[in-house]
Amino acid sequence: MAGRKTPAAFWVCFVILLVPVLGICVYRIFDRVSFYLSYPVTRESKEVTVRSQAFPSVTVCNNNPIRKSALSGTSHASLLDTDDQVRQSVENLLASTSSDAVNPSAAREILNTAYQDRKTARAARDLAGMSREDIANLGHQLSDFVMSCSYNGQQCAPNDLSSVFATFQSAKFGNCFTFNAGFQVSSTGVSNGQGLTMTLFTDANNYVGLFGRQPGVTVTVHPANTTAFPEDDGISVKAGESAGISVRKVVKNLLPAPFGDCGQGTDGESLYPGGYSLATCWNGCLQKAMLEKCDCVDDPRTTSGNMCTAGEESCRSRYYEQDATWRDDCNCKHPCKDESYVTTMTSSPWAPENVLIPELRYVTSLSDVGTLIQNNVVQLKVYYLDDAYRQVEERAAYPVNQLLRDIGIDIAVWFVVLMVLIGIVYLIVLIIRACCGEGSGNKII
């Protein structure tokens, strides 16, 4: 028994069956590895109910960037002359023709001439050429703009609104004011109708008509400690309206490379205060390119660089052309941990005969309160829609532990298949040999 050799038929069967089985097994392993290296991702979205939520930052801006009454006696007083010229030209145009026959081309030519006189290349950058200090001094002031403020039924700041409102300057809106810029107040958000309530005074008589703005405010809801971009994300509320903005927070946890293309931050120091966002990245790229080539910036929110003047207008305007190349050098990615807010606004006109604002007694007589509200006052309420937020989570659809498990299973399965097939074929060979009555030297038993 000990000296008995394995029949040659066994090895023939083994070799014949090993090659295809091994090929299939290798193919299966290669397929699993290739699938893993494609780094598939699953995205799960769910509603998470919580007892309390951190209240977002709320930025409010007057639609008018510069107060007309503040321009007199300043280096920008020429804006008043230009504004008066435009008004007079439009009045003359209206006087010379019937109201339904105004030539649009003639009106457009008047406005184009006015903007050319101001050496302004883009209407969106109405305050180009002004310093941050000029914008801060000439714009609407916090104490005049915010008439009243309450949070969760309590006064925001009985004595000093600046303790809960942070001020920054915008090239489009002038002074803007952010409530809860860095969790300066209680961060408990509730959904029982409470939240942030403000009464805002637009001061329509101080609007500079050249900017062509509807009296009202622009509201932006954004995460705390981030820069607001009301010109991109703002919600407009007209004067004379009472608006409610419901908020639903969305939290996204995205996977970085190789599974995704999110980023952890920017390369180098950001020109904008606060945390990283896609908006700060793109705007930062623009301002850095402008700072490098023009030696100035045109966004007063930036933390460094001098504001562009009329002398740098030709250089600055090139960066807003459609074929500007600064975008090619900008590698902006969605943040891996992203927090945003979905907002829904409902608004209705105020009924002045049923509304009495105590603060208005300092502004006008009660007989004129209806007209004043319709032309100047906005009531704003920002609140959470409910006690839940939406969470979007990315996960690896095929993690490495599953890859190793599948490879192990494939090897085990195909090894068993190989042994079973060899046993079956070898048994068939033995039966055939026995039936054919071969010599006793080749018998197994």
3D structure, described in words:
With 445 residues, this protein is α+β, with helices and mostly antiparallel strands. It has helices spanning 8-37, 68-71, 78-96, 104-117, 132-138, 142-145, 230-233, 278-294, 313-317, 369-376, 400-436, and strands spanning 41-49, 57-62, 146-151, 154-155, 165-170, 174-179, 196-201, 216-222, 235-238, 241-253, 337-349, 377-384, 388-396. The chain is built from eleven helices and 13 strands. The strands form two sheets. Strands 1, 3, 4, 7, 10, 11, 12 and 13 form an eight-stranded mixed beta sheet that branches. A five-stranded antiparallel beta sheet has the order 5-6-2-8-9. A hairpin with a 3-residue loop joins strand 5 (165-170) and strand 6 (174-179). The N and C termini lie close together (10 Å). Residues 117-125 have low confidence and may be disordered.
Helices and strands in order:
Blueprint lengths: L7 H30 L3 E9 L7 E6 L5 H4 L6 H19 L7 H14 L14 H7 L3 H4 E6 L2 E2 L9 E6 L3 E6 L16 E6 L14 E7 L7 H4 L1 E4 L2 E13 L24 H17 L18 H5 L19 E13 L19 H8 E8 L3 E9 L3 H37 L9
Parallel strand pairs: 10-12, 10-13
Antiparallel strand pairs: 1-13, 2-6, 2-8, 3-4, 3-7, 5-6, 7-12, 8-9, 10-11
